[in-house]
Specification:
With about 250 residues, this protein is an alpha+beta fold. The protein is about 25% helix and about 45% strand. The chain contains three helices and ten strands; from the N terminus they run βββββαββαβαββ. The strands form two sheets. Strands 1, 2, 3, 4, 9 and 10 form a six-stranded antiparallel beta sheet that branches. Strands 6-7-5-8 form a four-stranded antiparallel beta sheet. The protein starts with a strand and ends with a strand.
């Protein structure tokens, strides 16, 4: 199975790019068209189905933190006001340092529910509010999370920034198409054909979780006096497949 690879060095992380070729060559003679004039013979068309794949390993460069505030009180309005204060205070603290596609913050939800006693009666109210803090600057995101009073980091997610994914997919597309063409050349030569003509092709990138959707998650107990969050980026695989068929000449 032909296989091409290239190594990319990114800081201290070694990235491996591999184009793996899964050949599923099936020469198929095509039926003679019904409108072919009588007395004329058409040479059967030989069709070969091919698959080529390119892969790249990249370090996560986008972190998403989920922070939550929880309060309880004798009445629902008090709980709601406490949650609103916590959210507004955090957003006011973060807002001067927010930049699109670098550090972003948003509210993720709020809920207030009654607390019930043993007899089924309402004995109080409790609620929670969630904020999402995310960005490419992982150190800055972690520092901002620790500065927010009254919030707890409940989840950490790592993924690829959209710009990183788009750039990598563009390079993988070129590699996979080149691998597909090389396969077609080799198969045509093996079958003794003069060349080949592309009949159809499909380029299929493997889906990756978008920023904000979990790849890996862990729960951390944080406080305003805690040390910086221990963020360690992992690695993500990008994969792109080209499938199609060629007609041998």
């Amino acid at each position: 199975m032909p296989r091409c690879s290239s190594l990319i060095r990114h800081g201290l992380v070694l990235l491996a790019t591999t184009a793996s070729l899964a050949v599923t060559a099936q020469a198929q003679p095509q039926a003679q068209p019904q409108n072919q004039p009588h007395g004329l013979s058409a040479r059967p068309q030989r069709v070969v189905h091919l698959t080529a794949q390119a892969e790249q390993r990249l370090p996560h460069d986008w972190v998403v933190l989920t922070l939550s505030a929880r309060h309880q009180a004798a009445d629902a309005r008090t709980v709601q006001n406490q949650l609103n204060d916590a959210v507004q205070q955090a957003l006011s603290l973060w807002r001067p340092q927010l930049r699109p596609e670098w550090i972003e913050a948003s509210t993720a939800g709020m809920s207030v529910q009654p607390r019930y006693g043993r007899e089924g009666q309402i004995v109080g109210w409790q609620g929670s509010a969630e904020l999402t803090l995310q960005g490419r600057d992982m150190a800055a995101v972690a520092a901002l999370a620790q500065q927010a009073p009254g919030l707890t980091v409940t989840a950490v997610r790592m993924t690829l920034a959209r710009a990183t994914q788009r750039t990598a997919e563009a390079a993988l597309r070129q590699q996979a198409i080149a691998a597909f063409r090389q396969q077609a050349d080799e198969v045509a030569q093996a079958f003794g054909a003069r060349g080949w003509t592309l009949r159809e092709a499909h380029v299929n990138p493997a889906p990756l979780p978008a920023p904000g959707e979990p790849i890996a998650m862990r729960t951390l107990a944080a406080s305003p006096s805690a040390e910086a969050l221990p963020l360690q980026p992992g690695l993500a695989w990008l994969q792109l497949t080209v499938t199609g068929s060629v007609a041998l000449e």
